[in-house]
Amino acid sequence: MIKVSVMYPNTSDARFDMTYYLDRHMPMVRDLMGGVLKGINVEQGLAGGQPGAPAPYVALGHLFFESVDAFQAAFAQHSGAILADSPNYTNTQPTIQISQVQL
């Protein structure tokens, strides 16, 4: 199982509409990806590691797939629609990481 993490940085000018992300964007991603998408998880940043420190990311979206190949094949088909929707909920440029789930 792999996890694709899309991490939206918490900058001073960051705009992120969590309601839109939860109610519109992620359901669209789920519908487009179909059965190849095994799960979704969304997190909202609250704080950093030190008392009073801001969260490094305003939000994180996680998508689970059986393999990198499965993700890449599905994303290639729908990347245009998924990426075109981003301005509707954020003005940030996310960092993306693909990880092997170990536990």
A few lines on this structure:
Helix content is 32%, strand content 28%. The protein is built from 2 helices and 4 strands; from the N terminus they run βαββαβ. It has helices at 18-33, 68-84, and strands spanning 2-9, 39-44, 57-65, 95-100.
Describe the 3D structure.
With 103 residues, the protein is α+β, with helices and mostly antiparallel strands. The chain has helices at residues 18-33, 68-84, and strands at 2-9, 39-44, 57-65, 95-100. A 4-stranded antiparallel sheet has the order 2-3-1-4. Helix 1 crosses helix 2 (68-84). The chain is globular. The relative contact order is 0.34. The model has no long low-confidence stretch (mean pLDDT 97).
**Strand content of the residues, in percent?**
25-35%
> What is the strand tally?
4
The neighbouring-strand order within the major sheet is 2-3-1-4
Helix content: 25-40%
Mean pLDDT: 97
Q: From N to C, what is the helix and strand string? A: EHEEHE
How many helical elements?
A: 2
Low-confidence stretches: none
What gyration radius follows from the Cα positions, in whole Å? 14 Å
Based on secondary structure, the structural category is alpha+beta
Report the major sheet.
4 strands, antiparallel
Per the principal axes of the C-alpha atoms, what is the gross shape? globular
Report how far the terminal alpha carbons are from each other.
10 Å
